[in-house]
Design brief:
The complex is a heterodimer of chains A (about 325) and B (about 170).
Chain A lengths: L3 H14 L6 H13 L1 H16 L33 H9 L14 E4 L5 E5 L4 E4 L4 E6 L4 E13 L8 E5 L2 E5 L3 E7 L2 E8 L1 E5 L7 E4 L2 E6 L5 E4 L12 E8 H12 L3 E3 L7 E7 L3 H11 L2 E5 L4 E5 L4
Parallel strand pairs in A: 5-6, 15-18
Antiparallel strand pairs in A: 1-4, 2-3, 3-5, 4-5, 5-8, 6-7, 7-10, 8-9, 9-12, 10-11, 12-13, 14-16, 17-18
Helix pairs in contact in A: 1-3, 2-3
Chain B lengths: L2 E3 L3 H20 L5 H13 L10 H34 L14 H4 L3 H13 L2 H11 L5 H8 L3 H19 L2
Helix pairs in contact in B: 1-2, 1-3, 2-3, 5-8, 6-8, 7-8
Classes of the chains: A alpha+beta (about 325), B mainly alpha (about 170).
């Protein structure tokens, strides 16, 4: 026994984390505790050794790692792809088959919805879609066209080249049309952005837009009915989120707030003076507390959180 | 089927890879083995049943990483136990090369007496605490399952577990 209180803290952590229901926040707090002092990890390891000692000789069953074999009844919240949509959608999908003598009746649109975790979907043609958190997409593959609708959220596409079957991603009145390439589409609360990593795409951002062609490293963004803004970015930047980082170069706090609200699925409100804050840097994607802490570390702002919203205010201006 | 899903934990893993690395570093106190462990974690996810649904994917990954460390510690012990047994059988103690090639061998493998003391200590616990500890540790029930079986809350289960662990670590003088 060295320090009774550290030993006690270790006991507390060990007992708490044996619970399957321990939340991400608990794991992060545990990590912070370990990082605070090397002695903490030593005390925790001693308990782990004790835990394993009990398995010696007694032929006690090992602790089952969570897996399909584990007898666990976790609350199931499946990200499902089984929403069968009303036939009207099938009709809408077949309208784009103007020249289609072959109406592929098996091509019912399939819908994918994510909540607080991203997901990768591989389409029948080999193209893949990395769907970000809190997004909603439906897919209809027909003989003449590969049609995807991104109703809400963000997705990174890696499309297999098929000159005979254009790949079209629509969001409301906006659409991206490609033959084969890698690009990212964001559609959230009137904000629409397309960024190209490889190849080229034709983008139509909706009303009053004659359409434009983007190549690798180019992006276009349009908020509501405002004029579309073209920009360039390093090809990996728009796709950084698939690796858990969000990269900003001189972005307004409103843009950061908009991204944050997509990740946290709740409104993120920026106070007036704080709107002038510009941000250049990288955020790690995590839970609300993690992301809030990073913003406070990197910017002169205060993050106030409630169950219904998150508020960003300039520090000292509450 | 127009599409087939990849295991939904893979993108979560990619997103959380840095955070998991930091967690492993905090547990191990060094950078060694972290890439290996992350690789093992990836393989573990890929081998999960794709229909195995998880309510809290990120918390689940930490649990998986934590279990990986436990499995690793377990297999280190087993190999040390085998080495010790081998040495005893082979009377392989005349050469000097036998000394200190696994310095922790004799301390890592519990001797019978110490184990006996530990199990005796379990018997001295209040009956309810002892049963709860048994259910979770030896019968593999989760806290939620234990709570339902005993008819108490999950946090009460946690408290009983803590008391049992405290008593056990006391006799071990850890």
């Amino acid at each position: 026994m060295t320090d009774a209180s550290v030993h006690d803290q270790a006991l507390r952590w060990f007992a708490a984390l044996r619970d399957d229901g321990a939340e991400e926040g608990a794991w992060l707090a545990f990590r912070d505790w370990l990082e605070a002092d090397p002695e903490h990890a030593r005390q925790y390891d001693a308990l782990e050794r004790l835990w394993l000692d009990l398995e010696e000789g007694a032929g006690a069953p090992g602790i089952v790692a969570p897996g399909p074999a584990a007898r666990r009844r976790l609350p199931v919240r499946r990200v499902s792809a089984t929403r069968r949509l009303a036939p009207t959608f099938a009709i809408a999908a077949s309208l784009v088959l103007a020249a289609g003598l072959w109406i592929n009746l098996s091509a019912r649109p399939q819908t994918f919805v994510t909540t607080d975790a991203a997901r990768v979907v591989v389409l029948k043609d080999g193209s893949s879609v990395h769907l970000n958190r809190h997004s909603r997409m439906s897919v209809a593959m027909t003989a003449g066209q590969r049609a995807v609708t991104l109703d809400e959220g963000e997705a990174a596409f890696d499309v297999v080249h098929r000159p005979d079957r254009p790949f079209v991603v629509s969001s409301g009145q906006r659409s991206v049309r490609v033959l084969g390439t890698a690009f990212d589409v964001l559609s959230h609360k009137g904000r629409y952005r397309v960024a190209v990593q490889r190849g080229s795409v034709d983008v139509d951002t909706g009303p009053d837009d004659a359409g434009s062609r983007l190549t690798a490293g180019q992006a276009i963004e349009r908020v509501g009915e405002a004029r579309p803004v073209h920009s360039s970015l390093s090809p990996d930047e728009a796709l950084a989120w698939t690796q858990g980082t969000l990269i900003y170069r001189n972005a307004s706090l409103s843009t950061v707030a908009d991204d944050l609200s997509r990740y946290l699925d709740k409104p993120v409100i920026v106070g007036d003076p704080a709107k002038r804050v510009m941000f250049t840097g990288v955020l790690q994607v995590g839970d609300e507390a993690t992301m809030a802490r990073q913003l406070e570390d990197l910017l002169p702002i205060r993050v106030s959180r409630s169950s219904t919203e998150v508020r960003l205010t300039l520090r000292g201006q509450d | 089927m127009a599409a087939e899903p990849v295991h939904f934990l893979i993108p979560v893993y990619l997103e959380q890879r840095d955070a998991l690395a930091r967690f492993l570093r905090a547990r191990l106190g060094s950078d060694s083995d972290i890439e290996d462990l992350l690789q093992d974690l990836y393989l573990k996810i890929v081998s999960l049943d794709p229909d195995y649904a998880v309510a809290e994917p990120r918390a689940f990954l930490y649990r998986l990483a934590s279990n990986l460390l436990l499995d690793r510690a377990r297999s280190v012990r087993r190999s040390q136990a085998r080495d010790t047994a081998w040495r005893q059988v082979a009377h392989h103690t005349d050469g000097t090369d036998d000394v200190a090639d696994s310095p922790a061998a004799d301390t890592a493998v519990m001797d019978r007496q110490a184990l006996h003391t530990l199990l005796q200590t379990l018997e001295t616990l209040p009956e309810r605490t002892r049963n709860i500890f048994r259910m979770h540790k030896f019968d593999g029930l989760s806290y939620a399952e234990v709570a339902t079986t005993v008819g108490i809350s999950r946090s009460a289960v946690e408290k009983h577990m803590m008391q049992a662990l405290r008593a056990l670590s006391r006799v071990r003088g850890s």
